[in-house]
Design a protein that fits this description.
With about 240 residues, this protein is of the alpha/beta class. It has one domain: Vaccinia Virus protein VP39 (Rossmann fold, 3-Layer(aba) Sandwich), CATH 3.40.50.150. It has 9 helices and 7 strands. A 7-stranded mixed sheet has the order 3-2-1-4-5-7-6, with helices on both faces. Helix 6 links the parallel strand 2 and strand 3. Helix 2 packs antiparallel against helix 3. The radius of gyration is 20 Å and the shape is globular. It starts with 5 loop residues before the first helix and ends with a strand. Bound molecules: S-adenosylmethionine. The site of S-adenosylmethionine has 19 residues, from helix 5 and strand 2. S-adenosylmethionine binds next to helix 5 and strand 2.
């Protein structure tokens, strides 16, 4: 019997180290310049709001999410607000085509204007994520500090809609607030109540509960907690559609 050594059995491409032809771009991990451009594209009040949002979603959080999201393809921004993060993730990877959805018409209009000013070809739809007219499928979706603003049944309807909208292998990225430590949760709740008033729904879930729910919608789940200088109990959930 003739034996062939492992090295001989490998195709050519496995022998030695092969260098890629194209240089790998390695931009600054946290896009300060991208944030400055977004601020310049906004009117004064929204600019102040943007500086608060970008100080809450700090470099660590933004960098984790930026690296998790695909660098090309259609990406759904659920509850896009003023389009701050569509504008950010679109600048760090210009081949991303973001579709933003939000029921607040004024925010959607502002998101459209900001992204146009920055030369980004994103699109924005005024609507509720559960019912908005979305066409085609998405390589990824992200939901940044939106889930806890939805009533429990709406959270489930949103997960179901997103599971249907993603391609197999697509990524659902949820940035939210977990329920421990208790002090961090109550700190966040107080600030959120100040923003939305006493009547609007606020429903936080523990990250383990999100993971269990997502598995029920056929996602594989990874979770990281992201400590902050302020006591926000940030959590990033990366769920891959099976
Ligand atoms: C705290 S803001 C976050 C905005 C943005 N994601 C950000 O991180 O700056 C929550 C957003 O969720 C939007 N929202 C609330 N209910 C929604 C729903 N059912 N479908 C889509 N967006 C919704 C609100 O209009 C608001 O813009």
């Amino acid at each position: 019997m003739q034996f062939v050594s492992d090295v001989e059995a490998q195709p050519d491409s496995f022998v030695g180290v092969r260098h890629a032809d194209a240089e790998i771009p390695a931009p600054e991990v946290y896009g300060r310049e991208a944030i400055r451009r977004i601020a310049r594209a906004l009117p004064p009040i929204e600019r102040a709001y943007a500086s608060i949002r970008f100080s809450i979603l700090r470099p660590k959080l933004l960098s984790v999410m930026d690296l998790l999201l695909p660098d090309t393809g259609r990406i759904l921004d659920v509850g896009c607000g003023f389009g701050l993060f569509a504008a950010y993730f679109g600048q760090t990877q210009p081949a991303r085509a973001v579709v933003g959805v939000d029921p607040d018409g004024r925010r959607v209009e502002m998101a459209s204007q900001v992204c146009k000013r920055l030369g980004l070809g994103h699109t924005f739809i005024e609507g509720d994520i559960r019912t908005a007219a979305l066409t085609g499928t998405f390589e990824a979706a992200y939901v940044l500090d939106v889930m806890h603003h939805l009533a429990p049944t709406d959270q489930l309807a949103t997960l179901s809609r997103l599971s249907d909208a993603l391609v197999p292998g697509g990524l659902l990225l949820i940035k939210d607030i977990t329920t421990e430590p208790r002090f961090g949760l109550e700190f966040t709740r107080l600030l959120d109540r100040g923003m939305v008033g006493l009547q609007a729904p606020l429903h936080y879930r523990h990250h383990q509960e999100w993971a269990t729910l997502l598995r029920g919608f056929d996602f594989r789940v990874r979770v990281v907690r992201v400590p902050d200088i302020l006591p926000y109990p940030h959590v990033v959930i990366a769920a891959t559609k099976l």
